[in-house]
Amino acid sequence: MAVGFVRPARPGDAGEIARIQVATWRVAYRRLFPRPVLDGLDEQAIAGGWRDAIVAPPTGGHRVLVALEQPASDPAYLVGFVAFGPLDEDHMTPGETASPTVGGITELLVEPRWGRRGHGSRLLAAAVDHWRDDGVGAAVAWVFDQAPAMGKFLGSAGWALDGNTRALDVDDMLVPQSRYYAALT
User: What residue numbers bound the domain in which 132 lies?
Assistant: First the structure.
């Protein structure tokens, strides 16, 4: 029987986090983004960004956590991650002001081959625990409209659409997103 758990990311995890992000995006978003965009993802550059996020986060409230699965007789495998922090401009809509009591998920991914084993739920629960410790009472997350798995996952955890939408310009193509919201109290 395997054991799953979550811990804070370490600098040495950055390469594996980047590998998981690239692999997951190429599977989950293959119908959403143009192939040249996905093929052009630079795993080493992404790893450098994750290393920076782990070693020197923008604030004390920004965190990266990793999910691990450890089979009975094997070492633990890093299988997913979540990056989150206080509400910032990446999470807000135009004209919205930041609030220290609202947090935002930057990225939450579990590599597809490790899906449906509770890792996403453990990562989300750990983020919520950290937010509560920091006095954060609500959180938001942007979800791609044409890749509904994350929206379904967040909905099953009690999150709901808050009515805000946006479109990201990706290689001259607008990719719509909707924002989910959850009260953490």
Answer: 3-183
